[in-house]
Amino acid sequence: MNDRAVSVLENYEFEVIRTQKSRNAFLCETNKGWVILKEYKGPVFRLELLDKLLTRTSQNGCSRIEQLIRTREGELFCTDQEQTRCIVKTWPGGRECSLKDGQECRMAMNALAQLHKAMSLPSLAAENGLHAISLLEDYEKRNRELKKVRKFLKEKGQKTAFEIYLQQNFDVFFEEALQVTEEVKAYGQVLGTREYEEGGAFCHGDFQHHNLLCAGGVSIVNFEKFTMDCQMRDLYLFLRKLLEKTNWSVPLARGLLDVYDREKKLTAVDMLQLYYRFAYPEKFWKIVNFYYNSGKAWIPGRHMEKLRKLLDLRAVQKAFLEQTFSL
Question: What is the pTM assigned to this prediction?
């Protein structure tokens, strides 16, 4: 273990038995169980809110989640020799959830439904003046970014092969984005923020297989991207990651939605939220956003591959939407 990790762990009330390097972190076996040490780049005020969220979620019946560990001085973080903020959390152990294992995916979906019930915390939201994110505002912001890039490409002189291909296919996805946004707008307050503000619903923010540990059940870790939003955001992310690897299997999606629904009822508004999250060309927006905000002197070949794959799968994804959602 390097000196930076040693200097941090000395601030905690446990004895380290052994350590091992993990992804951008240190796993530590201590006399009080396993913990994980990792760098924290977010604002300090979010740590206090995260601590309250994890504590109340656990008290609300969802105990298989990580918890922040305070230092001897009662702080939620400490700094290493280079003044980098670090946090220490409990570590439940286990291996990452396998998207190839149907049983583990069903367990993950059940765990997500339980988590969402426990993360309905209106008092915590009210105490901190938190408001839900508007899907319409999110899409309108993305559309402005797409419009900006489309103009940039149109005015750009010498173009790479990727930029030519992107410009040739830009309007197909851009018009799709505008249409979805207009439909979301037409639903008005139904897909707005009021219902979720009143419900005080929090999301994990990054619910995917990397953050799910399987060992006699499913434990959930890495809540640093938590947010207050429609909880279908979590469900959409997990399903999208899975469906991208299974050629958008309708039976698989329906089966997993049934698992969630048995634990936590999916409302008509939930299904609308899910539909429009799948309908919006998010992957295209991500490719465009990454391209525009990175150095354009050299564009990775995988960008072209991703864009071609998106075009190839448009018909499959459209069929998936039509067969999975009855609106």
Answer: 0.91
